[in-house]
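Dear colleague,

As promised, here are the two records you asked about, laid out in our usual form so they can be pasted straight into your sheet.

NAME FIELD: protein one
SEQUENCE, THEN STRUCTURE:
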Amino acid sequence: QVQLVESGGGLVQAGGSLRLSCAASGPTLSIYTRAWFRQAPGKEREFVAAITYGGGKTYYADSVKDRFTISRDYAKATVYLQMNILKSEDTAVYYCAARRRDVIDSNGNRYDYWGQGTQVTVSS
């Protein structure tokens, strides 16, 4: 069973930066597209960014485009989310996800594995 573990969350002031990491373990060769989602209090989970295995194609939600960057280290089976120019509305629990197909999808129901989440709090 694939396991995903996020790290890197914390408290940061508006305008600051954080880098989240998501390390995969287990049969990692079975997972392809990796993604980040987030869920703020009282809100539904929303898609943030995704990256394919082949070619490293990326896709972002409009709300984070040009501020967040997703990347992956194939050797470490780790995906990163570099978050810059953070805003108070970025405050949420951030979850990493993985799927067994190499197709980007913003629908979380398409993903097969999930991490436990890491809290990001942006103070204004």
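NAME FIELD: protein two
SEQUENCE, THEN STRUCTURE:
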Amino acid sequence: QVQLVESGGGLVQAGGSLRLSCAASGLTGSSNAMGWFRQAPGKEREFVAAMRRSDSSTRYADSVKGRFTISRDNAKSTVYLQMNSLKPEDTAVYYCAAKRVIYIPTTARDYDYWGQGTQVTVTS
């Protein structure tokens, strides 16, 4: 059974930084991808970033390119999302997701496993 647990959300001023963590358990093997999505009130869940374990290749949403960085520590089975230069429009609940797959999914429906979410609030 795969479990994902996010942490690291909080309240930050615009221009600040936060680092989110997602600890995974039960996700064995090298053919998997882990990603981050976010959902603001009244909006659909949107893709933020994802990484493939086999070669650490990454994908980013255009809205976060150059500001957010996804990384992973395979020894700790943990994925991180470093968020810099935060903007009020980054405010949302951020979710970690995972899928046993060889490509990098960028839509929510393609992921099989989800964390409970962590709130990120950016004030102006």
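A couple of things worth noting about protein two: The chain is about 0% helix and 50% strand. The two ends are 40 Å apart (CA to CA).

Best,
R.
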